[in-house]
């Protein structure tokens, strides 16, 4: 009993501390991101300076970022091997790198930034409290849980995501309580403590839970899985092309920025820059052009693959919601339901986290849609193949797939 009480006492304290740090960091980040988005939308001419912003981001990361350039993959590598401390500099680097990416019109997300800040801040506690290797793994999981939960307002999904994403091959029961503690504290600190709200989504109509309706989710889930695979391979492919042909890393986002500017200017594709949250909301309300998901996939792959900073998850939400919206023309299910299934389904396939994505869907859209969301996430997970947007992720049995 004494060891158990000691475990609860230690991790209640550490989990709470990580939650406060991660939640506060996410609150500041979301406030800055909102400012950057509003400023860019009011002054679209800022897009012309995206290549210059890319040069600044690339130069700082190349000369001062050290291994911070690995981003989320660094968190996974340290969880698996525990080689080196995650540098505190990762927090300001990814924070301002992401803000500048959004301010000047890059297509990116926010999850990666929040997770990296949470992991970087949490890992500082390793040396402050002299934590051993196992405790360090748990504290990293807490950082990821807190960052994810606070940036999306989904504490249950944040905790489950950190466990499912980081412990895909080896689940550690000791990580459960700390992860949930950090996730809920971070969410409360961000939303209640700092007053930072989150986008509300809704599925007003849930189709009856008949066998026919459930079977219709299977082809939709297959499409979501293939879209997830396309998204992941686009980002990795663009990154490899830039590394192969541009030797000096700071020049990569310059060229990527020029290409983004030209594409957006000549195709009037302003809908696809930044987070794209207004378009995601529209996907739940009215029919949209069928190619929206392809445009966002390509523009995000070009932005992040060339070296700009930000997350992939909100673009995945965009891709999934707009694909579900397009599928409503052929699948006899409510438009908003298919958009919601795509929202979490493509995310599930691209990150290999079907449980977290199912729970996230229920937190965002309501538990009534749970069976549809869960089926879409599972089918997408299976059909997305062995790939992942995170190259360092260990994905168990899926690594044997073609």
UniProtKB/TrEMBL annotation:
<feature type="transmembrane region" description="Helical">
    <location>
        <begin position="86"/>
        <end position="105"/>
    </location>
</feature>
<keyword id="KW-1133">Transmembrane helix</keyword>
<feature type="transmembrane region" description="Helical">
    <location>
        <begin position="253"/>
        <end position="273"/>
    </location>
</feature>
<protein>
    <submittedName>
        <fullName>H+/Cl-antiporter ClcA</fullName>
    </submittedName>
</protein>
<feature type="transmembrane region" description="Helical">
    <location>
        <begin position="214"/>
        <end position="232"/>
    </location>
</feature>
<dbReference type="InterPro" id="IPR001807">
    <property type="entry name" value="ClC"/>
</dbReference>
<dbReference type="InterPro" id="IPR050368">
    <property type="entry name" value="ClC-type_chloride_channel"/>
</dbReference>
<keyword id="KW-0812">Transmembrane</keyword>
<feature type="transmembrane region" description="Helical">
    <location>
        <begin position="329"/>
        <end position="350"/>
    </location>
</feature>
<dbReference type="GO" id="GO:0015108">
    <property type="term" value="F:chloride transmembrane transporter activity"/>
</dbReference>
<feature type="transmembrane region" description="Helical">
    <location>
        <begin position="7"/>
        <end position="32"/>
    </location>
</feature>
<dbReference type="GO" id="GO:0016020">
    <property type="term" value="C:membrane"/>
</dbReference>
<dbReference type="Pfam" id="PF00654">
    <property type="entry name" value="Voltage_CLC"/>
</dbReference>
<dbReference type="InterPro" id="IPR014743">
    <property type="entry name" value="Cl-channel_core"/>
</dbReference>
<keyword id="KW-0472">Membrane</keyword>
<feature type="transmembrane region" description="Helical">
    <location>
        <begin position="362"/>
        <end position="383"/>
    </location>
</feature>
<feature type="transmembrane region" description="Helical">
    <location>
        <begin position="175"/>
        <end position="194"/>
    </location>
</feature>
<feature type="transmembrane region" description="Helical">
    <location>
        <begin position="138"/>
        <end position="163"/>
    </location>
</feature>
<feature type="transmembrane region" description="Helical">
    <location>
        <begin position="44"/>
        <end position="65"/>
    </location>
</feature>
